[in-house]
Design brief:
79 residues, globular, mainly alpha
Length: 79
């Protein structure tokens, strides 16, 4: 498993499920919509989003997307 480092020196690792949720989050989907697409409960998605926030060291959904883009975890497409 590859270790990824944040600017503060902490490491992070996102699970495949968290990465999938992150990509849907970056598309602006709500937890319920993500849950439907991933065929999981909304509660599970909330846990994934909380885990992503914790691992990336941010506390809002918007900050998750910004940090993920900065780290190269996602690539946003602008229209």
């Amino acid at each position: 498993m590859k270790e990824n480092k944040l600017s503060n020196g902490n490491t992070y690792h996102l699970t495949p499920q968290q990465m999938k949720a992150l990509n849907y989050l970056a598309q602006g989907l709500r937890n319920k919509e993500i849950a439907n697409r991933m065929k999981l409960s909304e509660s599970t998605i909330k846990q994934h989003v909380s885990g992503i926030m914790l691992r990336l060291g941010v506390n809002t959904r918007t900050a998750v997307v910004v940090k993920a883009q900065e780290l190269g975890l996602i690539r946003l497409t602008y229209f």
